[in-house]
Amino acid sequence: MRNRQIGIDIGGTGMKAGIVENGRLLQKIEEKVLANGSADEVVDQVKGLILRLGLDDISGIGIGIPGLVNPVTGVVYDVMNIPAWTELDLKGLLEKELGKPVALNNDANCFAAAAFTLRTLRERTSLLGVTIGTGMGTGIIWEGKLISGLHGGAGEFGLIEYRDQNIEYYASGRFFENVYGLNGLEVYQKAMQGDQRSLDMYAELGFHFGNAVKTLLYALDINYIILGGSVSAAWPLFREATLQQVGDFAYRQARESLVIETVQEMDAGIIGAAALVTL
């Protein structure tokens, strides 16, 4: 059998599916999520996408879930924008009806799987995939394996208490709204035009993100971080401030070997979901 998988990326409003071979997307389809449908109706929607792609030469199916999921049992507990999916044995249902292995995980872990598939070199067997958008999600690849935890929530550093809130309050796209009451996209546009106040706000974001990076390094002693999510496109605007803040990290070898890069692959969610089958 060829090394092909189907990957499904379930987002807040849309659902994308594709056939992936050796980390390369061969075919893609997408449609709007039946957010108000019953549990069975949304399961049928997922099955419909899979069957449209076809199961010939497919070794397995991977699904990225924007919510809480047990990656071992495949039970989905809570999914953003699909209220009917509560304690749903999605893995069991799909495997029974489709006859193919099914792997599930949350969207942050899928991004880490995509980063590993798309960007890592042979010697890069361990990395952190960090998505920065309306929140912060982190996935851990350790020695070529995805570390998910019991409920797929390993690595959720954004929820660690920080200052008077948590890390993602200050180190995600909502920083601008939370702290300054401003629209993040407008701040970005002004910063790209050279507006000094906007640039200063990005430097402040970098200060907080630098503290987040130090937390990651102290916890995991890892030196390769891949950024994704909408805010990662602005990485050049807060890179210097981030690295400056990491500059006082206690272990010199760790900070000097640190590499932070970005992935702008639009279909990383599909590719990462497909990679769940083999990771």
TrEMBL record:
It comes from the Bacteria. Gene3D superfamilies: 3.30.420.40. It holds the Pfam family ROK. InterPro entries: ATPase_NBD, ROK. Belongs to the ROK (NagC/XylR) family. This is ROK family protein.
